[in-house]
């Protein structure tokens, strides 16, 4: 009986993984820049989670959540998503809805709450000034706090239409200015330590070609399954 339950749980995890990788593929087809950003964030988040003591399984699950953390952006118009100038107040409100939109899509796909909460709260801030809910401190799920650091680091070190990339050192300095306000101090301290002990921690920014779902799913999963 125990064996049957265990296999059923494995089957559920397999189905969840298939759903999340399929959604990641949809991001790739909609916006390759967002997909590549998500791919790098997944690796950073997985490495950070492992450093903070998460099991390999837990860290892989976080990486899967990171692959779809910007899923809601696939519903944002290109003229807003790729705008090089500052966003208007209305455009920013639309952009800030992407965690809610992404979470709703995940709920509709019947994935476990861990993934929904991680996506929904990855823009919450330690001091309570984040969005969409305004959670504060440890009210924010740890998965979302880890994802937040990885997400912002990649944004800072990547080329965007509105900015040049920062060096790793410049990005660290920028992150440290927000410790205790935007970021969980313990999580950020762990991330900064990883950057210091791993000189080649930062992944190169590049755009890969769009592959079929059959090709993409094994590639995506091997990427996150091989993280440390």
From TrEMBL:
Transmembrane stretches, start-end: none
Pfam family, one: HD_5
Highest taxon in the source lineage: Bacteria
Domain (HD-GYP) ranges: 12-207
PANTHER family, per database record: CYCLIC DI-GMP PHOSPHODIESTERASE PA4108 (PTHR43155:SF2), CYCLIC DI-GMP PHOSPHODIESTERASE PA4108-RELATED (PTHR43155)
NCBIfam families according to UniProt: HDIG
Stated name of the protein: HD-GYP domain-containing protein
Organism whose genome encodes this protein: Tengunoibacter tsumagoiensis
């Amino acid at each position: 009986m125990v064996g049957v339950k265990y296999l059923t749980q494995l089957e559920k995890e397999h189905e969840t993984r298939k759903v999340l990788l399929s959604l990641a593929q949809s991001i790739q087809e909609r916006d390759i820049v967002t997909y590549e950003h998500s791919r790098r964030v997944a690796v950073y988040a997985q490495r950070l989670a492992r450093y903070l003591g998460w099991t390999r399984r837990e860290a892989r699950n976080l990486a899967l959540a990171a692959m779809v953390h910007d899923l809601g952006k696939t519903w944002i118009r290109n003229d807003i998503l790729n705008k090089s100038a500052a966003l208007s107040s209305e455009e920013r409100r639309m952009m800030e809805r992407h965690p809610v939109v992404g979470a709703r899509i995940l709920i509709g796909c019947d994935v476990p709450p861990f993934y929904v909460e991680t996506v929904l709260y990855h823009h919450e801030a330690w001091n309570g000034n984040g969005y969409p809910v305004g959670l504060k401190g440890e009210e924010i799920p740890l998965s979302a706090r880890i994802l937040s650091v990885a997400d912002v680091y990649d944004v800072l070190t990547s080329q965007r239409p509105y900015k040049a990339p920062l060096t790793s050192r410049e990005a660290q300095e920028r992150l440290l200015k927000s410790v205790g306000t935007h970021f969980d101090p313990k999580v950020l301290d762990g991330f900064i330590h990883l950057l210091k002990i791993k000189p080649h921690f930062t992944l190169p920014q590049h755009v890969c070609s769009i592959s079929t779902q059959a090709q993409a799913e094994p590639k995506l999963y091997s990427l996150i399954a091989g993280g440390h």
